[in-house]
Amino acid sequence: MKYILFLFCLLSSAVIVQGQDQTPKDQVSITSLNKRTRVSTNENGKLQVNVSPKNILKFKAQGWVNYGDFGAKGNGKADDMNAIAAAHAFANLHDLKVQAEKGASYYIGGKERTAIIQTDTDFGTAEFIIDDTKVENRNASIFMVSSSLQAYQLDGITSLKRNQEKIDLSLSQPSLITVANSNVKHYIRYGLNQNDGHAQTDIFVVDKKGHVDMNAPIIWDFDQITDIKVLPMDQSTLTITGGRFTTIANQAESKYTYYSRNIAIRRSNVIIEGLKHRVQGEGEHGAPYGGFINIRDCANVKVKNSLLTGHKTYKTIGNAGKPVSMGTYDISVNRSLNISFENCRQTNDINDRSYWGIMGSNYSKNLVYDNCTFSRFDAHMGVANATIRNSTLGHMGINAIGSGTLLVENTTVYGRSLINLRSDYGSTWQGEFIIRDCTFIPSNGKPNSANLINGSYSGQHDFGYTCYMPEKIIIENLRIEDANHTDEYQGPAIFSNINPKMTDDNYQEKYPYVITKKVIIKNVNTSSGKKLRLSDNPFMFQKVTVISD
Fold first, then answer.
1. What is the distance between the alpha carbons of residues 353 and 461, in angstroms, rounded to a whole number?
2. In whole angstroms, how far apart are CA 70 and each of 37, 47, 83, 84?
3. E strand intervals along 197-342
4. By the 8 A CB rule, do 114 and 13 touch?
5. How far is Cα 188 from Cα 199, in angstroms, rounded to an integer?
6. Which residue spans within 390-537 are E strands per DSSP?
7. How many whole angstroms separate alpha carbon 203 and alpha carbon 337?
8. Which runs of consecutive H residues, i.e. helices, occur in 123-234?
């Protein structure tokens, strides 16, 4: 056998708005010449991998490869990224597992290279040092967990309805559907980071006959569709275990140039377990990060028993021309379904306000924290259904807008409010809140007011949709630790003063807010001894029915 040439295209970069259907940049040429196994690059920087016939037989027989097989030094000094990418490329081609060498320390410099993961990978106890101080392309992920199944455009579907149960199509396998209408703008942001909104967007799962999974239903009416894609879902589960990752933080100018030197998940049905990520070298300035674990355009991803790190908060000038703190994340979830974090922690103090909240999400459904200790849960541009249970949330607490059911159970919250409805997107939740067996420690015990549901809504800004408060709120067995308070403190309130100008019928909302109809309260007690009140603005909430034990 003289040689076999394999040429296959690999994704090499992923920013927060890219998906698995983006045009690939890297190519890896894999040959089997009767020469030694070797990894090199050509004049264009593309990887050229030769694997000897003898090694191919060996690797197939054992069922796995490691990075050292492709020339990785693992000494923490030599740049091992080419060897890492080559190992995964070969493993993908032959459906082999990848294992990191026990005790190895892999240095990853700033060159633009992404290792594509399509098979089970065990990082084990190996260390990965990701040096972001000099980076060729800040958008290039280090690892991308990718599907070999190709996304494609869907023809013939011109409209969709909210909660539609079936679509007239036939597919070869269950798939994600992403849909957009660029003629309708949603999430027209208000405030210091104001913008003109984003195209109406949704994502959902259908089976082979087009039946929609109603656990994550279509949440918008699409009178027109300008883009609709099918993302076939891998039915097997891909597992990634272990790994001790350290990011040496970038020293770039503090502006919205997000770094995506991360592990990007672009495949459905993935488990990540036992991963640890730390950050070092943050200085007086730096660009923000778009999530070390960056999940997009997929479903059924579970992160378990992992340790992550909040990033230092830097400031820049926002769209309104005033200083703003930049969001920077170790977890990012975008346009994804059924994503859970189980038994996860962060390395830094969840109540240290010098670090930004660890998580941000957009356009996602069925997000779960279970037994997690994080500084924040956050849904920027909407979440449909979220569950937080058995967890502890720090100084940034629970921030959300969206729809469906938000369940908070057996959880301690140290934020300024128990749940904050994000004012920059209309303080909207179309559905219900269930708060059960929780403890609320306002502002981490500092003297402050205590509001369970916070938000801000003037009724004068068009967010691109009708804004709602949760139609029904159920609060059972809540302990409020408010003993440390100001002299003016009157006791905790169900609702903050969401619109201080709305004090009588003379106030007119151009875009009326749909107020909560019913609050059911059972067994709420306070350390201050003060009773739970309705609000500092009783006029705004005068029509709310409150049922208490």
1. 30
2. 7, 12, 5, 8
3. 198-206, 227-232, 238-248, 263-266, 270-273, 276-280, 290-296, 299-304, 307-308, 315-317, 323-325, 329-334, 337-342
4. yes
5. 10
6. 392-400, 402-409, 412-413, 417-421, 429-440, 451-454, 467-468, 472-480, 493-495, 513-514, 518-526, 533-535
7. 8
8. none
Give pLDDT, residue 487.
83
Three-class DSSP category at 40: strand
Point out the residues of the chain with pLDDT beneath 70. Answer: 1-26
Q: How far apart are CA 261 and CA 101, in angstroms?
A: 22
pLDDT value of position 26: 56
Q: Are 303 and 272 in contact (CB under 8 A)?
A: yes
Question: Would you state the structure tokens that stand for residue 449, as one six-digit string?
Answer: 């007011």
The position carrying tokens 């003289």 is 2
For residue 496, what are its two tokens?
A: 């903050």
**Which DSSP letter does residue 16 get?**
T
Closest CA to 358 of 412, 307, 309, 411: 309
Q: At what angle do helices 53-62 and 81-94 cross, to 10 degrees?
A: 70
3-state secondary structure of 263: strand
pLDDT in tens, 195-219: 999 999 999 999 999 999 999 999 9
In this prediction, residue 92 carries a pLDDT of 97
Pairwise CA distance, residues 300 & 481, whole Å: 36
- Residue 526's nearest CA partner among 495, 497, 498, 485 is 485
Number of H helices, E strands in the chain: 2, 43
Task: Please state, in angstroms and rounded to a whole number, the distance separating the CA atoms of residues 377 and 367.
Answer: 10
Q: What is the pLDDT of residue 320?
A: 85
Amino acid at 205: V
Say if strands 47-50 and 38-41 run parallel, antiparallel, or are unpaired: antiparallel
d(CA 521, CA 433): 12
Q: How far is CA 501 from the centre of its chain?
A: 35
Phi, psi of 285 (to 5 degrees): -150, 160
Q: How far apart are CA 8 and CA 26, in angstroms?
A: 9
Nearest to 17 by CA among 297, 205, 286, 227: 297
Query: Which H, E and C letters describe 91-143, residue by residue?
Result: HHHHCCEEECCCCCEEEECCCCCCEEECCCEEEEEEEEEEECCCCCCCCCCCE
Q: H or E element: which one contains 503?
A: none
